[in-house]
């Protein structure tokens, strides 16, 4: 099957929690991510076509506390689909704001050796 996405999507090897910065509540965990958006397995009720301010932490592979880089993004929830597990859903976010420094870190993380892609 041919892939038609414009951006490559990396699947995390560890659980990466996604936090709503407005409520400081964990809303789910990362399914995969690209430079333009991410798939999240949500465990909180989220509203389609709404805007969210989200935070998650990516490792830079160095080990220790300095290797954890928090990213804070503005995101638009494009779609929502119920998952097979009760109270969970798959949601697709498109990034609308992210600092240049954080974008550079995200690009390095996506392109890191040994990455698994969706």
From TrEMBL:
InterPro entries: PilZ_domain (IPR009875). Gene3D superfamilies: predicted glycosyltransferase like domains. SUPFAM superfamilies: PilZ domain-like. It comes from the Bacteria. GO terms for molecular function: cyclic-di-GMP binding. Pfam families: PilZ (PF07238). Residues 6-111 form the PilZ domain. This is PilZ domain-containing protein. It comes from Agrilutibacter solisilvae.
């Amino acid at each position: 099957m041919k892939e038609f996405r414009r951006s490559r999507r990396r699947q995390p090897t560890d659980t990466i929690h996604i936090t709503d910065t407005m409520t400081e509540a964990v809303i789910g965990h990362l399914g995969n991510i690209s430079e333009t958006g991410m798939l999240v397995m949500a465990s909180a009720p989220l509203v389609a076509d709404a805007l969210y301010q989200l935070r998650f932490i990516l490792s830079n592979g160095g080990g220790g506390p300095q290797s954890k880089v928090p990213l804070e993004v503005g995101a638009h929830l494009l779609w929502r689909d119920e998952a097979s597990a009760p109270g969970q859903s798959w949601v697709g976010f498109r990034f609308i704001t992210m600092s240049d420094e954080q974008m550079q870190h995200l690009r390095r993380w996506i392109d890191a050796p040994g990455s698994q892609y969706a």
